[in-house]
Amino acid sequence: xxxxxxxxxxxxxxxxxxxxxxxxxxxxxxxxxxxxxxxxxxxxxxxxxxxxxxxxxxxxxxxxxxxxxxxxxxxxxxxxxxxxxxxxxxxxxxxxxxxxxxxxxxxxxxxxxxxxxxxxxxxxxxxxxxxxxxxxxxxxxxxxxxxxxxxxxxxxxxxxxxxxxxxxxxxxxxxxxxxxxxxxxxxxxxxxxxxxxxxxxxxxxxxxxxxxxxxxxxxxxxxxxxxxxxxxxxxxxxxxxxxxxxxxxxxxxxxxxxxxxxxxxxxxxxxxxxxx
Length: 276
Description:
Elements: H1 2-12, E1 32-35, E2 38-41, H2 46-53, H3 60-73, H4 78-91, H5 102-118, H6 123-140, H7 144-157, E3 162-163, H8 171-175, E4 192-193, H9 194-205, H10 209-222, H11 228-238, H12 243-246, H13 250-256, H14 261-271
Antiparallel strand pairs: 1-2, 3-4
Helix pairs in contact: 1-9, 2-3, 2-4, 3-4, 4-5, 4-6, 5-6, 6-7, 6-9, 7-9, 9-10, 9-11, 10-11, 11-14
């Protein structure tokens, strides 16, 4: 189950929420404030503060303080605060979600359920919240009956909410802004949607053939060009009950998707009835 969930995590990798504007630019060192005993830089905007919290800290205390800073410094910026709150909820599962205890999982769930009530009017926050609830219930707690409804909620209510690259703060620009006025925005990447990965998890975790087929058909109709399509096709072909429904899609998929030769090879072998 953890291996299955890992594929979705890899699809999500680099796909955090939405594009954020370029980080705040300082010509001198930024001002600082102390949060939970940790000294943090203070940015001009909530977006800049949130980007700082995603700087890949090895220190969990600094990561937690950085996320709290978004909520403390910019309470009026609810979108960024919502994403910071999700980050704080996930921290309950660290340092390794695979070995999170019951108490850690309960704390994460409680925090996410609170977010669901507080930020119900923000689709970007809700899509990620429901997806994360589905993942915790399904992968960490082995309770698909509780997790699948959250995945379906993403599909039905937030079908077009993307996950986009959200890089960490470019520290060089903070201290010494470049002379060029050329945009330093990250290069564009193909859009990934919370709903397509939710559909993949439904296919993997449901025991209801009709629901798996329904999820697969939606995925191939609406998100055929996305990264989840190939993994969904592979999952269907691996299941003797579902393989016949998926097999007609193999040729079209392989003709249009050239980026992952290893996945393509596995799909070809499975479609031919062989073991990868």
